[in-house]
Design brief:
Largest sheet: 5 strands, antiparallel
Structural class: alpha+beta
Strand order of the largest sheet: 2-1-5-4-3
């Protein structure tokens, strides 16, 4: 898993951190591009969004959580991608990112992690 996370940081310009996180907010594996970036805290906060989205979806869609949630702000981009079970890949990128490239790389890494968790 760590090698896949390292590949994400290497392939996405401006990537700050990547983590595999459960719906309980606990990271299974994590990697940050700099020591000052707290990927544990950030991924725990963003997984709360996944939980709220899942609850909303239950009312209107068949069972299952969201496949991907992307949040764009002036400070950057956060992407949460389902990788099976109750696990999500959380990637946080700074404002200089290229959103399309970031989403593609997260999708690609998500497939690899999904296989690793199977």
């Amino acid at each position: 898993m760590k090698s896949v996370l390292q590949e994400i940081l290497d392939r996405i310009p401006g990537a700050l951190g990547a983590a595999v996180v459960g719906l309980d907010g606990i990271t299974v594996e994590k990697l940050a591009s700099r020591a000052s970036f707290n990927i544990d805290l950030v991924s725990a906060e963003w997984i709360g969004l996944v939980k709220r989205a899942s609850a909303s979806l239950r009312a209107v869609a068949p069972p299952g959580g969201p496949e991907e949630i992307t949040v764009v702000s002036r400070s950057g981009l956060a992407i949460l991608r389902s990788i099976g079970g109750d696990y999500y890949l959380c990637v946080v990128i700074g404002p200089e990112c290229i959103p399309g490239r970031a989403r593609y790389e997260v999708w690609r890494a998500g497939l690899q992690l999904e296989e690793a968790l199977a």
